[in-house]
Amino acid sequence: xTYPAILISAPYFSEDxxxxxxxxxxxxxxGTPEARAAMPEEARLAIRAIANKGHKxxxxxxxxxxxxxxxITQFGVGYDAIDVAAATARGIxxxxxxxxxxxxxxxxxxxxxLAWSREIVKGDAWVREGTWAAGRELPLNRKMSGAHVGIxxxxxxxxxxxxxxxxxxxxxxYTSRTAKDTPEGWTYHGEDxxxxxxxxxxxxxxxxxxxxxxxxxSREAIDALGPRGVVINIAxxxxxxxxxxxxxxxxxxxxxxxxDVFYNExxxxxxxxxxxxxxxxxxxxxxxxxxxRDMSIAQCANLKAYFDGEPFPTPVN
Length: 317
What we know:
The chain has 317 residues and is of the alpha/beta class. The protein contains 13 helices and twelve strands.
């Protein structure tokens, strides 16, 4: 009996995405730790690659279930749920799908900024519920163009967001491990996110996830934004001190927030849901048909490279 060589480790793949994986090599879905542990030994020995999607952890113990595992391909740019150090120690390559989602994530960041500042959600309700027709004007909202914006993490996505903000006439400030080649006038703050916060009204969190960036936007940085400060997070929920953020929002020490990611998603803290100055989204920054297709293609390109004995297009270790 021939067993599949690819393990699909999450139940979130669409039928099209699963079909692309199957076109590389036969695959088997084992979407929970229990299902993987229950696989016959012969089936586990046959697994050479894992196709992963979502944020359920893949740790060393999971890898050890598959002695011949050579590659874990992540659907998405973020791979913080995969223990890369454990994979490296076992000679397992981890890949992701960078670049293809930059534009969508940047688009949503700007959409969140505009929706928050111009009260788009409230305005829609104002019309639908008849408030406008009843003679009440929507209260004046806030101009975004020209305001100072901070990009916490000037990677590929951060740069795409910064370019969009610059088109709105917004002076750009940023943090990064090293200074980037940017247009004249953009201000580099090293890795000092507090200094960044002191210089801007809008703070867009765009750092990668993982232990190294946990709480990157700290309590001190949040308070440094001041009463006109607005936090936008399209990175990971862990990149912000969420307790500090909630406290600042409740006390009015900052003006508001627009969030696509959360600490315990999809179970969002009830205090955030209750706040009228917070705009919430269901982690959908890369959720367009076109980009999800391209992410699937990129994931399968890494799978195919392994089975064809070619270099991986996008390894992370």
